[in-house]
């Protein structure tokens, strides 16, 4: 096992403490594929292919190739919700989620204005969800319904006198005032005072984009860079929308790379999950074992595996990988409870054992040499405490070629 390197070069040698207060711009934490972390200030890009990080006011920025990047996390506070002045939440077929106001529409498309640009005419085929801003006690139920609706046909969701109703059919028009929806053998006219939103039919899952940009307010852009600046970043979505994104509103950038395989995308060959006093704990993909976002050290992770100790996952590796990288620990939801041991075994050889890790300990970041390994086992062992708080996370666990 090799140590997980953390490069806080912004501190240089200033009594061992980072001196990022002298840096101008948004503070960022850059993580490479191999797990090295660099803390500094966002300084734009070089040739739009290398992210520039200012690590000290009196030193030039360092350049990190986007081909080596896993993520960029913005550390200081971001802007307010950019969607507060907009009437709708738009989800595009390629995965982007935008605040928007409907400007006009017809039988084939909707024209939208977003805080990042527009107006854009978007065909229904490029839309996944059009949802007006909702609040109150029905908000969570409506959002869950919109996510889980059958995607074989369009679905109109209506909130009428406190009751949520759905109609399966086909969208015929969408305008700022409302629209028309084909339901069974008739056309329904609706307006946005009653209609909550429309879920559009889809037959394919979106492919992974080169870059995912997460914004304040829960919005996101799936696409690629057009131009990267110090104050603004220009991105193009999979549907061809060109958006101008203020750096002040960014929360994270995630980079997809053919060298990386997230274990949460693979099916384990075998799973051993012991019951505790008759309780069967599930293995959660990209969620904690309690079905919440994975959270370690006050940081959310979009990818990973959540389990309850004791648990063992076995994977057959078909490609030649060199490293397994992850952040491991007790999920923040149950801290300070919990105490477990994380182990990595390859072809029956122990490659990593971290010793007991409790809910009082910070997460441990690991980088494990797995060259030549064909069968990989991720093991979380319970200790003698018999603690129901043993909610263990393999956060961002990934294989690197």
Beta strands, count: 35
How far is the N terminus from the C terminus? 16 Å
The number of domains: 3
Shape: globular
Strand proportion: over 45%
Q: Tally the helices.
A: 1
Largest sheet: 11 strands, mixed
Q: Level of helix content? A: under 10%
| Low confidence ranges | 1-18
The class by helix and strand makeup works out as mainly beta
Q: What is the residue-averaged pLDDT?
A: 86
Question: What is the C-alpha radius of gyration, as a whole number of Å?
Answer: 23 Å
Helix-strand layout with pairing:
Elements (H helix, E strand, L loop, with lengths): L1 E2 L2 E2 L19 E6 L4 E10 L3 E5 L7 E4 L3 E6 L13 E5 L4 E9 L3 E6 L2 E7 L3 E6 L6 H10 L5 E7 L2 E12 L3 E6 L2 E6 L3 E5 L11 E5 L4 E9 L3 E6 L4 E5 L3 E6 L4 E3 L7 E4 L10 E2 L8 E3 L2 E3 L2 E5 L2 E6 L6 E8 L8 E8 L2 E10 L5 E6 L5 E8 L8 E10 L1
Summarize the structure.
With 401 residues, the protein is mainly β. The protein is built from one helix and 35 strands.
Summarize the structure in words.
- With 401 residues, the protein is mainly beta.
- It has three domains: 2-74, SH3 type barrels (Roll), CATH 2.30.30; 77-248, no CATH class; 260-400, Jelly Rolls.
- 2% of the residues lie in helices and 53% in strands.
- The chain has one helix and 35 strands.
- The strands form five sheets. Strands 2, 3, 4, 5, 6, 7, 18, 19, 20, 21 and 22 form an eleven-stranded mixed β-sheet that branches.
- Strand 13 and strand 14 form a beta hairpin.
- Residues 1-18 have low confidence and may be disordered.
